[in-house]
Amino acid sequence: MLTFEAALEVLQVRASVARADARRAYLQLLRQYKPELDPDGFKRLRAAWERVDAELDLRAALRLDDRRGVEADADASTQPGSEPGHGGAGGAGGDAPAVDDEAGERPAEPPLDRHTVPEWAREVAASFAAEHGGELDLSRLGAAFGASPQVGVVYAEELLGVRRYDLAAAVICRQLRMAEGSAEIDAPHPYRVVHLALRLTEHGAIAPAHRVVSALESYLSRTGGGARLSDELAGQWALTLELDRLDDEFPVAARAIIASAVRACDLPSAYGPLTEFTAREPAQAEAARACLRSSRHLRGVLSDALRPVYAARRGARGRRLERWGWFALMVACFAAVAFMVTDAEEAATERSLGRFQARQHTDDLVVVTHAVGSADQLQTLCLRRRIGCVAATRLARELDAGRCSDQALAALPDGRLGIEGQLAAALRARYGRVCK
Amino acid sequence: MTPTPTGAPIIGIDLGTTFCLVACMDQGEPVVLSNSVGEYLTPSAVSLNAQGEVVVGAAARARATTRPESTAQWFKRDMGTMRRYQLSDSERAYTPQDLSALVLKQLKEDAEAALGREVVEAVITVPAYFGELQRKATKDAGAIAGLKVERIINEPTAAAMAYGLHERDRQLRAAVLDLGGGTFDVTVLEIVDGVIEIQSSAGDAWLGGEDFSERLAQWAADAVDAEHGATLGRGPSDVSWARLLRAAERTKRRLTERPVATVALPRLLLPGGREVDVAVELTRGNAEELWAELLDRARWAMMRAMRDARVQPSDIDEVLLVGGATRMPCFAAQAAAVFGRLPLSSLPADEAVVMGAAIQAALKAGDAQVDDLIVTDIAPFSLGIATSTDMGGCRVNGLFSPILDRGTVIPASRVKRFSTVADFQRVIKVEIFQGERSMCDDNTSLGQFEVSDIPAAPAGEQSLDVRFSYDLNGLIEVEATVVGTAHSRSLLIEGVAGGLSKRELAEARAALQALKFHPREALPNATALERAEALFAELTGAEREHLGALLAAFRGALELQDVDRIGAQRRLLNQTIKALKIGL
């Protein structure tokens, strides 16, 4: 990376040079290093000029003391560029940079940072929330919107807080459309827009979230800013797009969980809530799984994120294995992987098995065997869990079908069929009576 | 003409969607060369005549309405794609490169006839939004035609150079709007201290004069369908649709001069065999409503160019209109609304781009005529690699990390540092993409290579410096160096996936030379005949009889093979065609 001093040397100017003079020096030297005839010389010259230009730009920006509430991590392309007039024939050369003066009435308000909202905005939001109806007269805030896109974002976030999702989405979309349509108006920072979209999804406002995502997509593609998102934001944006592309049947609750995890940039944190969701709503979990099949990328990302947590938890539970026996193992297996890799029936099966293991109710085992429909399927399931109740379940079916034999019952406590411990005893207790 | 070490001049070619031109520098001024029928504009059309000979140019364009199934137009829009064209029943399918090569061959011969010497090299213009695939396809087309094409320049840059050639003493910022037959390009440039600096480029690769005509044709076809209860076929081989398109184009041009115009077509053939006379009236207001979406898209492109250059409309001193379609008043009005000033048309609208190409040809040759002209151009698209990022413990892959941004002044070299993602990772795959979207899946892949033998270390501790170099000829070089060692690998992007290999190029060239061409000397006659035929179908009454008589006389002269008589009859025929077309 070229240093400022080295660049000054190439341009043959001093450090206190004004931007116009530095540029003139660059243009003069261009005659010696023409791009067509001396590409390497030109590259060096151009690199030097760009370095000096950037340095002078930064100095000018700091002097300007700009307070437009731009995010701390905004990249240079969104900073107001200061362009002192270059040697101009006629024209508007020499005026102060145009960026701060927008057309339209602009209330004289104190500088805005991301945590404060003007009083009038708060009042409007509160009164509107109280009314619960009627269209908000956006023209009241027209001047402020034009003046600073960040006001629009803060306002939208306020609206989200009072659950006016449609309105929040409308405000952001309007902001993005205005920025698309005019070179003078800056857009809200993509970071805040992506987070707003994710929060809308979290609150279950899917259609408004969809509108915001579409508006941002359109803005990014029109302005070519898509490739300029920072790495972390690009990752979040990619996942937001994937979430948005999921079918409408994807359960709102699951969507909210994933959105929340993406927003926090911490996908493994979705593990717990997803597990609970699967336990509570198996049918919806099944629908979710079906939808995810069409989203290869999101599915891949989620499994990568959740598998290590499952492994970690299984490891933790493994230590307690001796005390709790393989019952505990079954429970752990259930909770962790049910969402990702099995279908509804298997999930139900596993849940029943788990409950059985936890409370040793043979009723559950019967439910399981009937639900599964084939002993082989259950066998496969149990093999995966590395549990030796294969024989037990097959036997349970036989028993329920009334096909028990004294011989089989007698064999129960032996372990010859591969059944161990309390499971065997429970089976016997339940079916021993029935059969007889 | 422009002297080069080999003595042969480098010509500049504007390979447009609807029309082509060829020019050369002469005594410090770009001169547009005329073709075999004495015109400057050669339509980008290729047709096969009844004898199976290839016809290129005005004659082919005339055949677009009489024999649309044997004619191909607007193939520039398909450059770089797998689209194949079938002309008549020939078994051979033509690629867009083949068709462009046929046009380029014609232009090469025209230039050689005008200059009186052999031409081996050319500079060809492309829309600024053409990606790497399409640029390579254009170079391939040149190679198939027997032309060396080392330099491809952007059309707006060419227009800017033609404009700036005479403005070098001024200091100003200008926006050049080029609305051609098929594409729209906007360039913001600055002229300061005698240097022309291109600052940004934007555009719409699917917006051109033809689209405006097509909207009118669709509306007229709807009106015809409604009035006669028919469903007109609107495909490329439908004669009625081809005629409607041509009529719509005429109407579009007339609306430039008059507030009301009629789409008039005598004897339009409807499906089912009925013939109807079509006369649908259209006001300028109606047309502008139909064109509202197109004008909106033009506006987006203008805004984007200003945003990329980081200027406000008030910073632009002059707005220049280039390209035939900018003659439309609604377009000029749109430009005026966006920039807040009346646009100028100080350059001949159709010729500005080819003039710029000729200037660039001279610059490339190091010609003394353009010794004091300095132009800096910019990269037309962003280049980068595929990366992944960490999202709280898991990886999101397939993100596009730009290393050389769109708008960087070229020739340029940019470097960025990346690190390993896994512990003890020994190999990093560098996948190169071109485009502006944030996910690599949405961008164009240009190639890939691997850097191996990376020292074993925990994730993130070993880094790779990836350097992109982009030169004026559009050659991309990617170099990856493992930080801390001297180990590096590089790749020169010459053959893009989808482009033609050297062997394929040689085959295509041989195939082209094996085609039968309509003799060049006979082209003026063929052109006159085809134009007369096409016009005959559009006329009625006394005018039609008059044209018919002249056509018969011309044909008679051809039979007799009396050269003087042929020349005289042809001139008469051409004059009549011109006069009748004005009234049409």
Could you describe the 3D structure shown?
The complex is a heterodimer of chains A (436) and B (584). Chain A has helices at 4-11, 19-30, 39-64, 119-131, 142-147, 149-161, 165-181, 190-202, 206-223, 231-245, 252-263, 271-280, 282-292, 296-319, 321-341, 344-359, 362-372, 375-384, 390-400, 406-411, 421-435. With 436 residues, chain A is mainly alpha-helical. Among the domains of chain A are: 1-66, Orthogonal Bundle (Helix Hairpins); 342-436, no CATH class. In chain A, α6 runs parallel beside α8 (190-202) and α12 packs across α15 (321-341). In chain B, 35% of the residues lie in helices and 29% in strands. In chain B, strands 1, 2, 3, 4, 10 and 11 form a six-stranded mixed sheet that branches. At the A-B interface, α2, α3, α9, α10 and α14 of A face α8, β18, β19, β20 and β21 of B.
Output the CATH class name of the domain at 10-168 and 349-366 in chain B: Alpha Beta
The total of beta strands of chain B comes to: 27
- Mean pLDDT score of chain A, rounded? 64
Briefly note the CATH topology name of the domain at 10-168 and 349-366 in chain B.
Nucleotidyltransferase, domain 5
- Topology pattern of chain A, helix = H, strand = E: HHHHHHHHHHHHHHHHHHHHH
> Looking at the chains present, what oligomeric state does this protein adopt?
heterodimer
Uncertain residue ranges of chain A: 64-117, 132-147, 318-345, 356-391, 411-423
Query: Tell me, what's the shape of chain B?
Result: globular
Percent of residues in β-strands of chain B? 25-35%
Largest sheet, strands/sense/barrel of chain A:
none
Q: In percent, how helical is the residue content of chain B?
A: 25-40%
Low-pLDDT sequence parts of chain B: 1-5
- What is the number of strand segments of chain A? 0
Through-space gap between termini of chain A: 88 Å
User: Largest beta sheet of chain B, briefly?
Assistant: 6 strands, mixed
Q: Ends of chain B: how far apart?
A: 41 Å
C-alpha Rg of chain B, in Å?
26 Å
The number of helices of chain B is 14
Helix content of chain A: 55-70%
Looking at CATH, the homologous superfamily of the domain at 10-168 and 349-366 in chain B is: ATPase, nucleotide binding domain
What is the tally of helical segments of chain A?
21
